[in-house]
Write a structure and sequence with these properties.
Shape: elongated
InterPro entries: Zn2-C6_fun-type_DNA-bd_sf (IPR036864), Zn2Cys6_DnaBD (IPR001138)
Mean pLDDT: 78
Radius of gyration: 22 Å
Bound molecules: zinc ion
Protein name: Zn(2)-C6 fungal-type domain-containing protein
GO molecular function, one term: DNA-binding transcription factor activity, RNA polymerase II-specific
Structural class: mainly alpha
Number of strands: 0
Low-confidence stretches: none
Helix content: 25-40%
Organism: Gigaspora rosea
Order of helices and strands: HHH
CATH topology of one domain: CD2-Gal4
CATH class of one domain: Few Secondary Structures
Distance between the termini: 55 Å
Largest sheet: none
Length: 66
C-alpha cells in the first residue's frame, strides 16, 4: 500500500482549463507537451485584501510584564 498525499487533483493548468480538458496535473502536463504550450498553473487568488485586525499590542505586552 502506498500512501500518497494527493491534495485534490482538480487542479488543471491554464490551457487545460480553457479547453476544459483533463489535466494530468504534472508540472508540465502531457497536453501542453503535445501541443507545445506553456504549461502554467495559476493559483486562484481568492484572498482579497487581508483584513488587518489592529489589535493593540500594548495590552499583550502589559499582560506579559506583570
Ligand atoms: Zn494541463
Ligand atoms: Zn498544461
Amino acid at each position: 500500500m502506498r500512501k500518497r498525499k494527493q491534495p485534490y487533483i482538480g487542479l488543471a493548468c491554464t490551457n487545460c482549463r480553457k479547453s476544459h480538458a483533463r489535466c494530468s496535473g504534472n508540472p508540465i502536463c502531457e497536453r501542453c507537451v503535445n501541443r507545445n504550450l506553456i504549461c502554467e498553473y495559476k493559483k486562484s487568488g481568492r484572498k482579497r485584501g487581508p483584513k488587518s485586525k489592529k489589535q493593540s499590542f500594548e495590552t499583550m505586552i502589559d499582560l506579559k510584564d506583570s
